[in-house]
């Protein structure tokens, strides 16, 4: 292996410590406590794990964590009513509706009912538009975490060729917008891309967000490139459950200059950015300067 490991776990711990410092100052100087409400509908096991992990880390940085766990057959009207109440609650600064929602609920409608100022996931159409036009917005947590790691590793990203594999609204597209905002030359690849390997080999920065275990292999990586693996795939290998990314770690690490591991890369940064966004939302709501 030649690649440097980008340690998302350690970086996320640093971000959380900074957030905790700001939260303590908000309490001391302004009597404020940022509050994050997480809404979970149904019993999807992965979502339950994410929600409990988010709740635990929210409390650890000194914020208020409010969890609403609703049954899988919750009606849209009931869910929208809850979001309306959270929008109006001055103690709540961030609202996150855990996705995916059960099929009978209209995810777009639900997300677009959240007050954009409290939309700490950055999925509301207003925030998507603000990000796309380079204006101040709430930035989706996973791509934000990736960008922070890239900036930390490289300093300035201007002029680098970035390839994002995946064009989802929650990862691929906002990731591409953020890289463009940092003046990278950005290509978005997807399932219809011709000769994906050749496209990937042109990347100084390669972000994999495909949802296919270990699909990006070493022969698709330019020597010395930085590889960010967003994928979280649960697979079974030799009779054991295992978590792997969208990148084949061993072969990619033999070629890349730097790489994020799974687990311990993008995942921890996502929750750290959620906490940072909640802090930002609280500061904006009270007209206070935003932490850098
Ligand atoms: P989606 O399924 O919404 O999107 C996957 C994208 O990958 C699509 O744009 C799809 O293309 C593209 N794709 C699928 N197969 C191929 C292929 N063979 N070649 C090229 N492109 C392909 O996934 P998400 O964006 O929601 O998530 C991506 C990954 O990131 C998943 O593993 C998910 O678990 C993980 N994730 C991790 C998070 C974290 O905190 N670390 C947070 C969110 C997601 P097309 O549009 O043409 O179908």
Give a structural overview.
This is Bifunctional protein FolD. The protein is an alpha/beta fold and about 290 residues long. The protein folds into 2 domains: about 30-120, Leucine Dehydrogenase, chain A, domain 1 (Rossmann fold, 3-Layer(aba) Sandwich), CATH 3.40.50; about 140-265, 3-Layer(aba) Sandwich (Rossmann fold), CATH 3.40.50. The protein is built from 10 helices and 11 strands. It has helices spanning about 10-30, 45-60, 75-90, 105-115, 125-130, 140-155, 170-180, 195-200, 250-255, 265-285; strands spanning about 5, 35-40, 65-70, 95, 160-165, 185-190, 205-210, 225-230, 235, 240-245, 260. The protein has a 6-stranded parallel β-sheet. Strands 3-2-4 form a 3-stranded parallel β-sheet, with helices on both faces. It has a two-stranded antiparallel sheet with strand order 9-10. Helix 2 (about 45-60) packs across helix 10 and helix 6 (about 140-155) packs across helix 10. The protein binds NADPH dihydro-nicotinamide-adenine-dinucleotide phosphate. NADPH dihydro-nicotinamide-adenine-dinucleotide phosphate binds near residues 168, 171, 211, 232 and 267.
